Amino acid sequence: MWRGRPRSGPPRASRRSLAAAPFGYEADHLTVCEDEAAIYRQVVVRFLAGESVRSLTVWLNETQVPTVTGGTWHTSTVRNILKSPRYAGLITHRGQVVGPGVWEAIISENDHRRLLSRFELAKTSGRRAPQRYLLSALLKCGKCGNGLYSSVRHDTRRGTVSRRYVCMAGPDHGGCGKLTVVADPLERLIADAVLFRLDTPELADHLAGRSNADERIKELAQVVERAQAQLDELSLAYGNGEIIMREWQLARQAPESRLARAQRQIAAASGNSALSGLVGSGSELAKAWSGLNLSRQVAIVRALVEHVVIAPVTRRSREFDPSRVSVVWRN
Ligand SMILES: [Zn+2]
After folding, report:
1. How close is the Cα of 168 to the center of ligand 1, in Å?
2. Is 164 a domain residue?
3. Domain-located, residue 22
4. What separation in Å is there between the alpha carbon of 246 and the centre of ligand 1?
5. 46: pLDDT confidence band, cut at 50, 70 and 90?
6. In angstroms, what is the span from residue 137 Cα to ligand 1's centroid?
7. How many A from CA of 177 to the centre of ligand 1?
8. How far does residue 42's CA lie from ligand 1's centre (Å)?
9. CATH code of residue 42
C-alpha cells in the first residue's frame, strides 16, 4: 500500500538511503522520474517481447542502473516491479486493486494486464519465460562449475544486440561471474554435434548399453534396423517406378508400425522417452533443423546432452573458439 511523503521530502540524491520511493518515482512517491521511467518502460517492452526476467536483471546490472536502495538488481526485484499495479497508476489494498492512485502512471492499464498474463502463462506452462535459448540450463562454467544464464547484450553505441550465456555472480546465482560465451556459434556447434550423434552407431550401442541387463534392447535395435532398411527399399522401389503410390503406402504400414513400436520400447527401456523416434534421424533433422520450433530443438538436444562445460578463454580472439566446449552426453 502506498505511503506518501510530502513533496518537500529529501532531495533525490539522498532518498536512496531513506524510505525508498518505488523505482521510477521521485522521493515524493508521486512524481515520475523520467530517467527511471524510460528504463522501466524498456524493461516492460522487452519482457512482453519474450525476454526473461533473468536476462533483464543482468542487463540492469550491466548498464549500472541503480536500484532504489543503491544495491544490485535481483530477479525478484525485477519481477516485483513488473507485477506491481502502481506503475499503471493503480492503488492496491491487501493485494487487491481498489482504484486509481493519486500518482502518475508510467505504463497503461492494458500493459499492466499483459504483464500479469505473461507471468500467469509462465506459471501454467511451468516455465518462467518462453524458452528463447537452445542451451538454457545445460551449460556449466568451466571456472566455477556453476550454471550459465542466458543474457542479451545491447550495445547502444554500435546499435547491436547479441545473445550470450554468462556466469553470474551474486546472491541469486552464486557463480564466479567471470565467464561469457556468445550464443549463436555455440548453439550451432551443439546442434551439429547432437544431430551427428543421432546417426552414429555409438548412440545405438550406448542406448543398448543403458539397459545391458536386458538383451531385448539389442533385439529391438535389430528390429529398428530391419524396418528402416525395408522402408528404404520401398522408397527406392517407388522412386524407380517399380511400385505405384498405393502399393508403396500399403507396404509401408507394417514396417512403419514395427519401427515405431521398437523405437518406443527402446526409449522406454533406456528410460528416456525423448529419444523415441530420434535415433537414426539426424540427417533428416539437420535438413529441417532451422525450421523446427525452439521447444522441439530443445527437446532433441536435452534428450542427448547431459550438460556442456564451457572453458575459459585461453587466447585473445574475437572469434568463437570451439575448443572451449566439452559436451557431456547422457548415459
Ligand atoms: Zn563461473
Report:
1. 7
2. no
3. yes
4. 59
5. confident
6. 14
7. 5
8. 28
9. 3.90.1750.20
pLDDT of 14 reads 44
Are residues 299 and 202 part of one domain? yes
49 CA distance to ligand 1 centroid (A)?
28
pLDDT in the model for residue 166: 93
In sequence order, what DSSP letters do the residues of 161-189 get, joined into one string?
EEEEEEE--STTT-S-S--EEEHHHHHHH
Is residue 138 assigned to a domain?
Answer: no
Query: What is the distance in A from the centroid of ligand 1 to the CA of 146?
Result: 6
User: 114 and 27, same structural domain?
Assistant: yes
> How many domains, in total, are found in the chain?
2
CA 327 to centroid of ligand 1, rounded, Å: 17
Q: Where residue 118 falls among pLDDT bands split at 50, 70, 90?
A: confident
Given 77, 106, 124, the domain boundary residue is 124
- Do 18 and 115 lie in one domain? The reply is yes
Residue 241 within a domain: yes
Give me ligand 1 centre to Cα 181, in Å.
Answer: 11
pLDDT surpassing 50 at residue 15: no
* Residue 234 domain boundaries: 195-305
Supply the pLDDT for residue 106: 94
**How remote is the CA of residue 313 from the centroid of ligand 1, in Å?**
12
Antiparallel, parallel or unpaired: β 139-141 and 148-155: unpaired
Residue that terminates a domain, selected from 124, 145, 172: 124
Return the percentage of the chain with pLDDT > 90, whole number: 30
The beta-carbon contacts of 177-180 under 8 Å, at least 24 apart in sequence, are 178/143, 178/144, 178/312, 179/141, 179/142, 179/143, 179/144, 179/148, 179/310, 179/312
